[in-house]
Known about the structure:
Number of domains: 3
Helix content: 25-40%
Number of strands: 22
Strand content: 25-35%
Shape: globular
CATH architecture of the largest domain: 3-Layer(bba) Sandwich
Largest sheet: 7 strands, mixed
Radius of gyration: 24 Å
Structural class: alpha/beta
CATH class of the largest domain: Alpha Beta
CATH superfamily of the largest domain: FAD/NAD(P)-binding domain
Amino acid sequence: MKTLRTQVAIIGAGTAGMTGYRAAKAGGKQTLLIESNVYGTTCARVGCMPSKLLIAAADAAHMLHAASGFGVHAGEVRIDGKAVMARVRSERDRFVGFVVESVAAYPAEDKLHGHARFLGPTRLQVDDHTLVEAERFVIATGSTPIVPDEWRAAGPRVITSDAVFDWDDLPASVAVVGTGVIGLELGQALARLGVRVTIFARGGSVAQLSDPEVLEVARRAMSDELDVRFKTKVIKVEQHGDGLAVTSEDAGGQQRTEQFAYLLSAIGRRPNVHQLGLENTGLQRDHHGIPLYDQQTMQCGDSAIFIAGDANDERPQLPEAADHGRIAGDNAARYPEVKPGLRRTPLAISFTEPQIATMGASYAELCVSHPGRFAVGKVSFHNQGRSRVMLQNKGMLRVYAEYQSGRFLGAEMIGPRAENIGHLLAWAVQAGLPVDAMLDMPFYHPVVEEGVRTALRDLAHHLKHEPAHDCPCVDCTPAP
């Protein structure tokens, strides 16, 4: 077994790891990038990019069906599942190729392939071939989709989102478990492409929403189009012929068994930290086994170990992973002179239809940090001008601001153009704008953003009429 010595060792070559590697190198440190799997980020291989390719195909199919609402009648719609999936795989491979090319350009001596495990706070063992001694480390090992063992026992037809993008053709039916971002995006896309889809949710959650009013609108909007079974749990999955028998139980205890070609587990992802030998580092860890770390510096305790991206389970999104990696790599290079890095305003977008976006502080967070000290404004998109013109008039936006200061704090929404509105409102939060200043900004006509102005006017009204003993947090928690 050979021994390598380096100043910084990066474990994981995904978005956080690659960004951390470049930051550490820019800091003038000898850096080793260790990867146990194929190169190519989660986003490019099995995440944001291939899912958007599938959604784009689904949107094209949906537009043909929706055209009659405008008096435009298309001919017979035919969905070629093999062609849809061929494009998804081809474009996915193109995106992955860009990542692989980037890693290929790194010096050969900076790369090591194999599974890394800590032997101590300054030593790693990589497979059975290499010992790595380093002064500083960045853990950027990503995450893995969760599949309960009892479901996995039913065989290969129980899948995660990772497997969807390797299909050669669209299946006849899919049971989707989970109403998070992945479950809703893929479930709706497959349904719009002609797949029989049923989505099961143990509770009443919808994507990342926590505002009870927005949640209720979102549940109705999703249920209008999709077979979504809220407050229904999957209690048994068994192999049945070439497919699966899925037994579910609703809130009233009523059980139902149905056949599907696949079951897609979309109940969350687990950080890849449990096979790293972290017990040998001396780091303090939480009840999930994740090292305790500073969210501004990514430093684990006062050690020379930093953690970034999905591995720390904070905000599992590509932009966050890149920011984490940059901060971790910078600080690994300058250790022990660790400094806070730039943490941007939280922004999360679900590319369903209607789209879902949350930005800044969520309703649930404000009920903890600002109980009785924040006002709420809202707008429904049902009668919003441009939304009705486009036949996309479903949804609600709720906006939040601090009493006294009038500072804009955040928003939650489901509705048209949420990916664009989300950015505008996130920028306003990060800029520390008060609501009055936001209302001074230009609004063109007719645009969906006029709905934002309506919500802000409602918010401004409530800010001027602060109640003496009122708290908007009647129910401060997301639905179970």
